[in-house]
Design goal:
The protein is an alpha+beta fold. 36% of the residues lie in helices and 36% in strands.
Length: 281
């Protein structure tokens, strides 16, 4: 897209913009691939210098502007015959650029991102389809980062879900497939080499364990909810506050000869909760 921006002093900046997407994290930028200030090309050694459109705060308000980084800024200052020494500068955008950046650019960028994601997913699934049951898959289990798969298709749906499920149920991989342990000062990493056929069996076992864990957690939560409901019902029927829970907390009164308080959470007759403190002298 082409835009023409004019400053209060009458300087005219003409730019050609292009949407740029980071294929790793899908970050989006509106980059300037051609710029002309007052009839002078802004470039260095015949190459376009770093410029992009972004939102900045000016006089306490967000505005859309063209940012010129170090080399571009040097060229601009040279064209303007300015002796100022700054690392970067901004040129306020015109209304057309502002409208495009705020309303059209995000939508167009999302279309590109979705296309890239589909292409990436298709490529990953194609790589995944090549894996045979006898193929050895290298797995690393890091004490901090968790499970990671060392394979061309490591980010495909199967391996992504595999890592999530094993982490969720704290699954321990069979020691017989362990090939290396890297003991660090603050963390460790265990390497496993497992046939893909066995890996699929492990995945199914881990999913079953996760279902059991989730069912147990739900049953425990249902029990807690039922108990809490009964306590609130008793408070309503008796008209008296009922204890829901208690914890120990640091005393909040410096004038009391006490280090810990018992903090009670009470169910009130009107369905609300209140807290009360009791000192432990």
């Amino acid at each position: 897209m082409k835009f023409e921006c004019k400053s209060k002093k009458g300087n005219v900046l003409k730019i050609d913009t292009e949407i740029s997407i980071d294929e790793y994290n899908y970050g989006k930028e509106l980059r300037v691939n051609k710029a002309n200030l007052d009839g002078n090309e802004i470039q260095k050694d015949g190459q376009v210098v770093a410029m992009k459109v972004e939102k900045v705060i000016a006089n306490g308000k967000p505005v859309v502007a063209v940012r010129a980084d170090f080399n571009a800024c040097k060229q601009i200052l040279k064209i303007l015959k300015s002796r100022r020494k700054i690392d970067h500068c901004y040129f306020k955008g015109c209304k057309e650029l502002e409208d495009y950046y705020n309303n059209i650019f995000p939508k167009e960028a999302e279309k590109i991102i979705e296309k890239l994601k589909r292409e990436k997913e298709t490529k990953l699934e194609a790589e995944f389809a090549k894996i045979q049951d006898i193929d050895i898959i290298e797995i690393k289990d890091h004490s901090y980062y968790g499970i990671s798969v060392c394979n061309e298709a490591s980010h495909c749906k199967f391996f992504t879900e595999f890592a999530k499920v094993l982490k969720a149920c704290k699954y321990t991989l069979p020691q017989e497939y362990q090939t290396d342990v890297d003991w660090g000062d603050y963390s460790d990493e265990v390497t496993y080499k497992i046939p893909f056929g066995k890996l699929k069996e492990i995945f199914e076992d881990a999913k079953s364990k996760l279902v059991e864990i989730q069912a147990k957690k739900k049953a425990e939560q249902d029990t807690r909810d039922a108990k809490e409901k009964a306590i609130f019902q008793k408070a309503k029927e008796t008209g008296e506050p009922q204890e829901l829970s208690r914890i120990l907390a640091e005393c909040n009164d410096p004038d009391e000869d006490c280090s810990l308080d018992i903090v009670y959470t009470m169910a009130m007759p009107d369905g609300t909760t209140q807290q009360k403190r009791q000192h432990t002298w």
